[in-house]
Amino acid sequence: MIISKAQVQNLLQVYARNKGVNRADLAPAARSIKKDALAISDESRIKQKAMQAIRQADDVRMEKVQELRERISAGTYTLTEGEVAEKMIERAIVDRQI
Fold this sequence. Notes:
Elements: H1 5-31, H2 42-56, H3 62-74, H4 81-97
C-alpha cells in the first residue's frame, strides 16, 4: 500500500478539526461541573453552637478540685454506690440528649 502526501495532509486536517471540536465540546462541560454542597438543619446548628460553647467554657473549677483533693488526702471523702450510680445515669441521659 502506498501512502501519498495528499492522504497524510487530509489525515492531519481531520485530526486538527477533531482536536478543535473536542476542545469546544469540553469547555462548556468543564464550566457546568457541579460542586458538592452541605446543608445543616436548624437543630444541628443549635447543637453545634451548644457544643462550641461547652468547649470554650472552663471545665475545671480549681476551688472544687482543691477541696476534693484535701478531703481525699484527709480520708474524709466518701461516696455511696447509689450516688455513683445516680451520676452515671444522669450523665447517660445528658449524653443521649446531646
